[in-house]
Amino acid sequence: MMKYFENLAKAVFGMKFKALNDQEQRVIESIANKAPLPENINISFHENLTFGQKLADKVASFGGSWTFIMLFASIMLCWMSINSWLILADQAFDPYPYILLNLALSALAALQAPIIMMSQNRQAAKDRVEITANYEISLKTDIEITRLHQKIDELTDILTAQAHKTDI
Fold first, then answer.
1. What's the pTM?
2. What is the per-residue DSSP string for 105-116?
3. In this predicted model, what pLDDT tens digit does every residue of 99-133 receive, in sequence order?
4. Residue 123 backbone zone (phi > 0: left; psi -120 to 50: alpha; other: beta)
């Protein structure tokens, strides 16, 4: 089988199999074994996530949703309304300019920002894995199309030669 890998690598890339990079070797092995190349990136990537990473993704997903925006706007509106109404009775727990609310908002932003950044970094890592898989698929497709084209050219030459023999 290794001889077939070597011959295929030499024919396609003009190099020895061992001189190829990992992606090119996987493509050659896939062609030689007549096996599909891609795996489901989403499944394999998400299986390796830790509990904290999954939680960060869920928090980032919720924090960037309209549900969160509407819920948080409602809480802020209620907070300001209750405190504005209680200020008339001189019992407001956070009177205007709502310093406690400002502190809560700052704390939320300070906690939410790194969580969102962790989620974005993971998405970027997943994108890099997908790009690698797409490159391998594209390379395999190009090689297979080139090989098919060569086979068709060979068949055309054989048919042309046979047609010339029958004409003579």
1. 0.67
2. HHHHHHHHHHHH
3. 999 999 999 999 999 999 999 999 999 999 999 88
4. alpha
In terms of residues, how long is the chain? 168
Q: How many CB atoms lie within 10 A of CB 167?
A: 6
Domain borders along the chain are: 1-35, 36-167
State the sign of the Cα–Cα–Cα–Cα dihedral 112, 117, 123, 129. Answer: negative
Distance CA 83, CA 78 (A): 8
Structure tokens of 141? 């497709």
How far is the CA of 42 from the CAs of 38, 45, 46, 54, in angstroms? 11, 5, 6, 13
- Mention every residue, 6+ apart, whose C-beta is less than 8 A from residue 132: 23
Q: Which residue has the tokens 């109404």?
A: 85
Digit-coded pLDDT (tens) for 47-78: 889 999 999 999 999 988 999 999 999 999 99
Q: Which position has the token pair 């939680």?
A: 55
Question: What residues contact residue 23 under an 8 Å CB cut-off, 6+ apart?
Answer: 132, 135, 136, 139
